[in-house]
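From the pipeline queue, job 12 of 40. The input is one protein chain; the requested action is below.

Action: predict structure.
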Amino acid sequence: MKVRPDRASPTVVGLSHPETGMRKSSILVAMHVALAVSIAAPKLAAQAPDRASAIEVRKRFVDDLDSLQAKMLQLANAFPEDKYAWRPGAGVRSVGEAFMHVASEYYVFTPMAYGAARSPVIPPGPESFKKFEASSTKADVLKNLNDGFAYMRTNLMALPPERITGTQKLFGGERTIIETSTIMTADLHEHLGQLIAYARVNGIKPPWSK
């Protein structure tokens, strides 16, 4: 089931991108725990988080994204400028385009996953995303990873608890933030795995790797 109408997007049960992703983070476990605590045993999937659980899910989600962003920035800095145009094959995102795609997720779909406003930096429509990703020098990447992440984090944390409890219309359906957080964390970690693979192929060791 597709959840993003205007671009290639992950599904609820899997991801549509061709590159192999890395394992999902421990945030998924935390989300399921929060769900179990907040609802009665029958029909778990049909229930929505209460106030306390929604606040905890958001905290775990943002904590996970803080860790992911730190690795994205380390990796973006580790790639030399002349590798930003490298791509594994025709029709596949380059290094720079893949990083800019992550920045686009920060600006648009991660805030939308909680019902916050998307950034006007990227207008609606697939052509806007293509144009945004095409500006993919190292300077472009570092600026937009930082600016996009700051936009996303500020807007998520500013939402009052009553805005993130229960269900709301997200990604074209009535969903909880547990569902949409899972969708977004899986997608963003997949792109981190993609960029780690790009780095390894180019002889670049991820800075945090021992």
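Job complete. The domain at 27-201 is CATH 1.20.120.450 (Four Helix Bundle (Hemerythrin (Met), subunit A)).
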